[in-house]
Amino acid sequence: MPTLADVIRELESIYDPAWAESWDAVGLVCGDPAAEVRKILFAVDPVAAVADEAIEWGADLIVTHHPLYLRGVTSVAATTFKGRLIHKLIKNDVGLFTAHTNADVADPGVSDALARAVGLTGPLTPLQPSADDPRRGLGRVGALSAPVSLAEFARQAADGLPATAGGLRVAGDLDRRVQRIAVSGGAGDSLLGTARAAGVDVFLTADLRHHPATEFMETSGGPALIDAAHWATEWPWLTDAARRLTSISAAKGITVETRVSETVTDAWNTTAKCEDLK
């Protein structure tokens, strides 16, 4: 039976913590490295619903994309939701491990899975390559097998991503023919200029704010924009991460059972018109 330390070693061989941003907090959050691990749940967010799912399934470890803590703390008392989560995990012998920005820039990483989910084919290249390795980096650029209208691509992307209350927001001429696409899992505001410089037809990402998006569409004359839910753009990575861990572990004689959480942890759970709220 593999230990938590064994599993962490394999995860960090895939998603090297040295690749993480300096402000990030990745790696083991709680758990005994000597504990045995049989079942691993993969999820985007470390929240109560995911912890409950892990406990009900009998998981020994949760691997999340988003960190639980990004800043130093002086207490994990169960007076906050994060403290309560830590208490619940420890009481039920469930470890928590995070692969965040190190998974974003990995090859393959979060944006590779997003690109495949929305139908990009052929080779993928980083939108913003890492300084130390051009094969890694933020975002991905790829192509559709044939040109389609922006409206058709938006429908294809919506079908390929998990459903959320907000769906997809599209900026651009819906009849425009598009083929070369850039994607970036998670918040993509910082890559708007990079997407323009890449000469793509569409940039699909999440968390685009009003003013940057408006200025981009007014001044760039460049890519159309598709804004998806943050959670939805990162969820496809879970299957890839679970598959890679299972494969590399099996090659070394380590057997673990993995499961991808389908719990929707997007912060928004409905949309409504003002008249619907009266």
TrEMBL record:
InterPro entries: DUF34/NIF3 (IPR002678), DUF34/NIF3_sf (IPR036069). It comes from the Bacteria. A divalent metal cation binds at residues 65-66, 104, 230, 234. GO terms for cellular component: cytoplasm. It holds the Pfam family DUF34_NIF3. One of its GO terms (molecular function) is metal ion binding. The keyword DNA repair does not apply. Keywords: Metal-binding. Belongs to the GTP cyclohydrolase I type 2/NIF3 family. Homohexamer. NCBIfam families: YbgI_SA1388. This is GTP cyclohydrolase 1 type 2 homolog. It comes from Streptosporangium subroseum. The lineage of its organism: Bacteria, Bacillati, Actinomycetota, Actinomycetes, Streptosporangiales.
